[in-house]
Amino acid sequence: KAKVRFILAACVLGLLMVGPFGLTALLLFLDSKDAEREAFAQFLLPRLPLGGFMTLIGFIGGVILLRSLFQQYVHGLSRMAETLRLMLGANRNFRVTAEGPPEVCDLARAANDLAKQRNELLDDVEAQIRQAKATVEEEKNRLAALMSELALGVVVCNLDGRILLYNSRARTQFRALSSAPSVSGGAELIGLGRSIYTVFDRALIAHALESVQQRLQRGAAHPSAQFVTGTRAGQLLRVQMAPVREIDAAPGEVSLNGFVLMLENITRDFADESERDTLLHGLTEGSRASLGNLQAAVELLDDEGIDAATRERFHGVIRDEVRA
């Protein structure tokens, strides 16, 4: 502590003031003879009070000077350190007061210059952060506007299957698909931070991801994967998966940090196709007998030996089958 250092410095000052004089007197006393010692004692002893008083006065002056130096340098630098800690922690606009010796004042001004430079750098960093946030927010709004205009439902997930973003079309689709009585309109099936695996089988997603990664490794420009799955409500969904690649990935490295799912409800399309297939099958089966009868009637009409009544009957068969 500064107080202990001041006491030690005062003791050293006292030793420096008294020690050389006392040591010199002791050496002279030991080196002299009896008569010289007696004369030296007679000369020195009457003057010891004056010498002691002058030494005490010098010691007090030295202590006062030493205390002043401690106040200016040691305590001044300690106060400056406390001010710098305050500047770093609570109030970055606080400044060190330039007072004390020239060296301490120069140090205070240098610290203030560094603090000013730091504030300018922090302000610049904060401005860049605000600009980056504004840019990200703008891009996010553009992406949200673009996704809202898509006819397909879009869900963006990370590799763990946590939903990061989805559009209103996907929310509407899942709201309509839910058949669980505990789910209010199906809206709670998806949400930010929820798992996509509560909606789709994990094996389907894993298989699609593996297919996408294999296509990336083969150098495909636009790798994607598709699968069709059913829901608890009996609906059919066609899902197309596209990868979300890492921006800072090394060249040639296949690295993903998520995937995008584009959803299309094909239940009605599948039903329409099934109905069309049924109609085509019925038309084919229904026309086959008529075509057979037409072919048989035409072949019999080619026979020149049939009579007019039979020929007219075959003509009626052809008319009826064509009308049918």
> What is the CA-CA span between the terminal residues?
116 Å
| Gross geometry | rod-shaped
Quick check: average pLDDT?
Answer: 77
Class of secondary structure makeup: alpha+beta
Tell me the Rg in angstroms.
51 Å
Spatially, the strands of the biggest sheet line up as 2-1-5-4-3
Number of strands: 5
| Biggest beta sheet attributes | 5 strands, antiparallel
Helix-strand sequence: HHHHEEHHEEEHH
Q: Catalogue the unreliable spans.
A: 180-187
Beta content:
5-15%
- Report the helical percentage: 55-70%
Count of alpha and pi helical runs: 8
Characterization of the model:
The structure is a single chain. Strands 2-1-5-4-3 form a five-stranded antiparallel sheet. By secondary structure, it is of the alpha+beta class. Residues 180-187 have low confidence and may be disordered. The protein is rod-shaped. Helix 1 (2-31) packs antiparallel against helix 3 (48-89) and helix 7 packs antiparallel against helix 8 (308-323). The protein is 64% helix and 11% strand.
